[in-house]
Each structure stands twice: as structure tokens, then as C-alpha cells.
């Protein structure tokens, strides 16, 4: 059996973990809203039409923040359409996804849903077909106490107290030619600066996220960040990153190595942000909001077929990836990567929350269940709190098509404020178990608090409504812990959570 080692010290700290890195994303796209979080008449719907079975799963994850209402959708969205009596809200064509939007579920419904889910809202403003004026108006509507047109309209619409939206996105993927009202980097940077300035004049307590490149593969990546940040650096707090991975060639070793690409992406954007900081002699650091990330490739053909057959339909079943076990392993490694950059990655939103490339699936009128990727997401959200640690990991490695020296063991750890330590580890090996030996002597007396294991013999195994526990966590062997030294067997192709409690 191969061996890997891990050394942890409480003084080798990366930074405090911002719980918002366990956020998610609800867009008016497919069945994410209609038939997902909202389905009036469903047997499990509450008085507001919110599916309680979905809410229970969201609370199980512990989602702290939810980005809304898009995504590509937001670039054609008029926020005023989503307030007031439902029967008076206009139906609109959504050019982003070639569907029709009823606006039945709107701003107030979203805020009410967030309260029931225990999540804070992260709201995106339209900088595609609209601009700074509409953005400052919605901040006034949402956050101003009262005595003005927009704040009093909010009260008239049933919310006497401010909605208190504190995190805002300045548009979405504005570099993309698929985006309504796409911009050059300079155009966007100027608009983002003026928009952020005006929004913060209305409410100085808010934070805003500027659009970085929509993908690392965009030809303008890097130049886009430099140019737009040069225009808006002083008035923004975060830069967004978006990244999706797929395995269309069925290359499992190469697919599981994609987190190395993610690591490089984060490092590159941090360097760009800091170069602008240096150029401007600025005192503040602009941090990162990884506000779209996931595995996404399974549904592409099906989505094309549905869209062609039902153009301008409503709540079409599109982008409904059915995730397998290997997808869960990569999602686990991506979460590990975010923790390794906890000093700069302060927000992250798994895209999306329900049905649309999502950890939670539903059947309209039927059940709700957890997909494979649900479990690493839930584990890290539940257990990676406090301070991210910088482990020294020594692991055997492998080569694949796009990467060399890929460690079989991808691992990191978090130190909770109560002194407990949690290790998260993926064994990427397809052939054999690996013995992990961890030196934990720096933390005093610890005891094993549990070994959570996610493993399946079939990397393509999936969960379904009929078999929702096909891929689900079980109790692992736990290993031995003596004199501050942990020895534990990590099964081949497995996600592992090792809980070590302070005595």
C-alpha cells in the first residue's frame, strides 16, 4: 500500500474562513426557481409556495449566502418587474435562455425564501441593458429605512423594514459576447465604478463584486481584469471568477486533476488584483468572489434539444446535469482548493442550487433528493469553520494528459475555534488505497471524532429519486490516533472527512 504524509501546525495558518465560500446560486433559469425552490400546489409546499423538502436539504448543507437573480438572466432583467402584486407583474421574453419569465417569483419572495433557508441574499444588478440609475434605485428600495419614493414603495409592497441586502454583483460575465449588453473592459470598468459609487452613496455598508473574466479560457483574460480594475479598483470589494469543468473524454485521472487548474486560476487573479493595488498605491486589497463554479457537461445535448423544441417556454428542464461519483470527488477537491486560498477567496457560489447543474434535484409534483456532489459540499460547509491551515502534504503522484506530478492525495485542514481539527482529503488513485499518516502533535491531546467516507466502486454511479442513497456517505474505519500521530487508510477514489476533537 502506498503511503502519504501530512503535517499540521496551528501556527501554519492561511487565514480565517469566510463562511460565504459555501454559498450557492439561484437564477431564473430552467427549473431552478419554478419547480425547484418554488412550486405552489406541491404537497410539500408551504403557504408561500416554497417547497419544504427543498428547504430542508438547503438547511442541511448550511448555505450561508445565495446569489440571485442571475447569471445571464440578469442582463435583460428589469428589477421593477419583480415587485408589487403578482397579478400585475409583466411577462417578459428572456433572451438569455430563450424562455418566458412570468415574474411570479420576485424580489420579496426571494428574500422571504432566504429567511426560511437561513441564507443571506447576494443580489446582482443589470449592467447589460441597464445601468447605474436602476442600480442605485434598487439599493434605495431594498435598504433605505423610509421616507423616499423607493423605500416607501417597498413598505407599500409589504416590507416595512429594509431588506438589508449587503452583498451586490455588478452585472454578470460582461466580457462574454453571449451576454446582453456586453462591454469592453474599459466600458465595463467605467460603468462598474460609477455604479458602485452611487450604490455606496445610498448605503455605505454594502459590498460589491466586479465582473472578472467569465472564464480562464477567454482570449481577453488577464487584460480584462487589469483594464477594468484600473477604472473601478477604489470602489469595488471583490472580483468575480467563474469556472466549470467536464469530462467529455471519459478521462477520470485527468478530470480529477482539474483542481490544479483551479488553483492556478486563483493565483493568477490574485496577482492581477495585487498588481493594480501596487500601481494605485492602494491600502485595501480586492479579494475574490468565486461566484460560479461546478462540474457542468452532462446536460449539454439534452438542453439543446429541449430549447429547440420549446423556444419561449417556461421553466424548461434544461441544464439538468445528473452527477456521478467522480463528479463528487472533483467538487471535493475544488472545495479543498478554496480553503487553501481562504486568505483571498471570501465568497463562492456553487452553481446552481436546485435542478440546474445542482446538488439538489426535484421532480415537479414529486420528490426531492441529494445528488452525489451534495455530500462534499455539505461536509465542508458544516465542518470547515474557523481558520484554514496550511498542511505540508507529501504524496505519491501521477501524470495525465494535461498535468504532471498530480498528487494522489489532495488534502487540507481547518482549525475550529474550539480547538478541534478537521482534515478533508481526496484519494485520486483508481488502483489502490493509500495510508495517510498525519502529524498532529502541535494541537495537544486530540481524539477521533469520526471518519466520514464517500466511496463507490462505480465512478459513474448516480443518485435518483428511486435510489437516492446509491452514493451516500458512510462511517469510515477511522484509523488510529496515538501520541498526536494519526494513521488512516483512505480507500481508492474516495472523499474523506476526518474529525479530530480537542480533549
Could you characterize the architecture of this molecule?
The protein has eleven helices and 26 strands. It has 503 residues and is α/β, with parallel strands linked by helices. It has two domains: 2-9 and 388-502, Sandwich (Immunoglobulin-like); 18-357, TIM Barrel, CATH 3.20.20. The strands form six sheets. The chain has an eight-stranded parallel β-barrel, surrounded by six helices. It has a seven-stranded antiparallel sheet with strand order 2-15-19-20-26-22-23, covered by helices on one side. Helix 1 links the parallel strand 3 (23-25) and strand 4. Helix 5 (185-202) packs parallel to helix 6 (223-232) and helix 8 packs parallel to helix 10. The two termini are 31 Å apart. The model has no long low-confidence stretch (mean pLDDT 97).
Strand portion: 25-35%
**CATH class (first level) name of the largest domain:** Alpha Beta
Q: Can you name the CATH architecture of the largest domain?
A: Alpha-Beta Barrel
Domains counted in the coordinates: how many? 2
Largest sheet: 8 strands, parallel, barrel
Structural class, from helix and strand content?
alpha/beta
Mean pLDDT: 97
* Strand order, largest beta sheet: 3-4-7-8-9-10-11-12
The portion of residues assigned to helices is: 25-40%
Shape: globular
N→C terminal distance: 31 Å
Instruction: Write down the Rg.
Output: 23 Å
Q: How many DSSP E strands?
A: 26
The name of the CATH superfamily of the largest domain reads: Glycosidases
Q: pLDDT under 50 segments (min length 5)?
A: none
CATH fold annotation of the largest domain: TIM Barrel
Output the number of helix runs: 11
